[in-house]
Amino acid sequence: ACFLDSMATLGLAAYGYGIRYEYGIFNQKIRDGWQVEEADDWLRHGNPWEKARPEYMLPVHFYGRVEHSASGAKWIDTQVVLALPYDTPVPGYMNNTVNTMRLWSARAPNDFNLRDFNVGDYIQAVLDRNLAENISRVLYPNDNFFEGKELRLKQEYFVVAATLQDIIRRFKASKFGSTDVVRNVFDSFPDQVAIQLNDTHPAMAIPELMRIFVDIEKLPWDKAWDITKRTFAYTNHTVLPEALERWPVDLVEKLLPRHLQIIYEINQRHLDHIASLFPNNVDRLRRMSLIEEGGTKRINMAHLCIVGSHAVNGVAKIHSEIVRTQVFEDFAALEPEKFQNKTNGITPRRWLLLCNPGLAELIAEKIGEDYVRDLSQLTKLHEFVDDDLFIREVAKVKQENKVKFALYLEKEYKVKINPSSMFDVHVKRIHEYKRQLMNCLHIITMYNRIRRDPAKLFVPRTVIIGGKAAPGYHMAKMIIKLINAVAQVVNNDPMVGSKLKVIFLENYRVSLAEKVIPATDLSEQISTAGTEASGTGNMKFMLNGALTIGTMDGANVEMAEEAGEENLFIFGMRVEDVTELDRKGYNAQLYYDRLPELKQAIDQIKSGFFSPKDPNLFNDVVNMLFHHDRFKVFADYEAYVKCQEKVSELYLNSKAWTKMVIRNIAAAGKFSSDRTIKEYARDIWHVEPSDLKIPPPNEPRDAGQDKTPNGTAA
């Protein structure tokens, strides 16, 4: 969404393509401390922003078989599903540009199950239309996890096949009546079209475009492959092995038989090339193959994307470095110039102007309004870091946002929180690598300290944790239950009173982020170093006047680089330390034995202190922490708790805290998605952003202004 906003604001002729899911990410309810999923029937009352475009409906083929003849390969006896596009306008910021997001919905053809001479069960045939239309029924809710389901592969091919037909139709229309020799009509394709693959989910676009060029347009393989590679670029979004898409060959063979043949051909030529460079190196061939042997044969979709693209990028410096030197090191050794970095960004229109008008207005009073389109201008705020009036105003806006959020929480969830306490916020998908468990251990530690010495000064905190767990992710669901169990004890202990409150924020989503982020004092970004590709919540908090406690991971590294490491609360192992600990072997027991407060917290969880009705409830969690914690919670616990003490200490000095906030906001300019998109445009798509304001429709235009230069459509 941020990228679409920036592309329109920068005047790029760009389209966002995807699936119009009937049911989006589930709504989360918390019942008795457990996550319960409900369907998100978001279209029930209609969607006024979308326009169905049946005139652009396109067929998508599945199953069938391949027939080879002298004239080439033919994919026949297929099942057809229709793709109906729905267009949503994407307006640029104040530039009279409106781009299009086109989402495909699956429809059964009218002769579905009726064309073949069947037994005449007309009713059943009509009911069976659902089978085809299920393709766009529901979004798979997994985060950083690959589940090789046939319906998911159908969804991936569906969006790819419809989109490529649409792109080629538009390309041919632009060529209509031109002098191009028909045989060479596609020569200019990569100059006119750039396709960015958002992770490996649309990877089937590579064999699909080859199928169109070779089987339908009758281009020679080498020419088709050259055009294909120059058209595609691939963005990698994760390094977690369980998230990488590896589709079973037999599933692809059943669903997309021609595409499997094309993938085999791509792989054969790819491996021949490597064998010519590294003779007798069978291990390198095995590592670099698109096909993984052993057990069930699988297609490594990331390898397909790398081989079939002219550019590959990660989404933060540290992530792109890991992609280049570890995950895909063999490919980077072969073509180092192919690998790039494009650090993620967020749109300041949604994530400042819209969600935090008070702060946006305050900034505009000091540096003018131009920063909204050029966020680097926020550096001008450095001049006001010692301005007492400005400091007070920034603190006042934050306080107003906190009061507003506290009232919302009271109204919607009937929970009372103290707006003068520090709002310590940890909102993101629930996952072991994001280490919500470490935050939970810190909460228990704070609780134990208050009870041990009730008279001691304690900086009051409201800890807010929110996020959805994938429905099939047992450990993530246990983490939610644990947080709620701890909250139950802490929030009802009279010795604690208003010093510490724990809230699990139900059904975290963008609209709720827009409310909680402007009210946040402390942003939790505590993934194990080397696991969070970038993160964007970290940037949203920074722009909205929160301070960050975090590891040197993802974009946190660049945030610290921009603001100065002394203006973030950075703690814990760096990537090198994690690597070294893996080499030595991580032994959780050592930390448990060495750290009395950690031992106390774990013993409480283990003994049923937080689950008196079921003392063994959290056995799986404790067992994981001791015996198979890939993300090393105990190893960073001590540094995390010590760092949190520094946070509390600074929060006592409101002026020093707010000055640090201003330094952070002043350094947030790099993290605009406008900057990110300019880098994609110049380094990958080879188009120039335009800051020309198109005249509105009600203003007459000069004849000379009527012509638009032909650029690449991204």
TrEMBL record:
GO cellular component terms attached to this protein's record: cytoplasm
EC code(s) of this entry: 2.4.1.1
Keywords: Allosteric enzyme, Carbohydrate metabolism, Glycogen metabolism, Glycosyltransferase, Phosphoprotein, Pyridoxal phosphate, Transferase
One Pfam family linked to the record: Phosphorylase
Location of region: Disordered: 688-714
GO annotation, biological process: glycogen catabolic process
Cofactor(s) demanded: pyridoxal 5'-phosphate
Residue numbers of N6-(pyridoxal phosphate)lysine PTMs: 540
Protein name: Alpha-1,4 glucan phosphorylase
Source organism per UniProt: Edolisoma coerulescens
